[in-house]
Amino acid sequence: MITLDTADHILRPAEWVLPGHPDRLADAVAERLVRAATELDPKALCAIEVAVHRDRVYLTGRIACPGSRDLDLTALAREVYAAAGYGERWHPAPGELQVEGNLCLDDLAEGEADARHLSDDQGIVTGYAIDLPGTCWLPPEQWLARELGERFNALVRGPLELCPDGKLLVVLEESSASAPPSKRRWRWRTLSASLLAPDEVDGVTLYRMVRSCAQEVLQRARAALPGMEDAEPEILVNPGGSFHVGGPEGDNGLSGKKLLLDFYGPRVPIGGGAITGKDHHKPDRNFARIAREVALAVVRTGVADEATVTAITLPGDGAPRVLRIATPKGDLAEPGRWGGVRWM
Question: Which residues does UniProt call coiled coil (predicted)?
Fold first, then answer.
């Protein structure tokens, strides 16, 4: 049956992937290199892109800080694969990885460290918050997908020994959408899970495990989300057929592709810049954080029950330039109230 959205009735989709998904592996390698560099120097400049396929990891970009040339890139990449769950059961095993690429490793140029607080690029950033503390002020459908993804990821280390690569999609039905968030009604309509299990795990066992995870997360959702119904969703496990090869053995991966997972899901427009592989001074990352903090401040102070902050940054800026703060009751225009930003 096809259900059409209305002004007061909306179907909200969201997705998640497990840490062993090729794109997420690439993100995690990039993030591990950022962490290693900033441990050497908090002002380290990092702009890293990663691609993975089979037993290869390709690195490009730049890491600039004292000691960057001494970073053991191969060991760091292998650490990420092991943490995701690759090894004896699922390949590539961390010890088999070959790290290649053209990553520039150098020191910060003269004066570069003193300018790290300034934007070194242009960009568009978005911050969002909704008055639902139980979901960490995130869109409930994206929170639900994340919670379920984390529960599925626990099965990688559990008795089923699931492949670290997997994905899921949920659809949450939102009723009374024009009411305050705490007064809305929510029903989990659909769960599609694409998971790879060992050959000895039959489809019935896998389905039961997925359903058990869904029931557990549904109870968490009822505690976190006012108005959440207790009806179980339609559950589809590998609706296109069983998988036999997963992870980088079955697909390539690139960092920066899972932007919706890093932000707020499809409900909220994203600015456009990836945050993975970039240090915390980079505007795509730093100013997106500031935009989120402004949106949280609007909601937590009771000015609005939902807020979307849209801002831009230009080279040389020390703070994002806010274009608008959109709320259900219209745009806010109180530049003196919100710290850490400037207005166009």
Answer: none
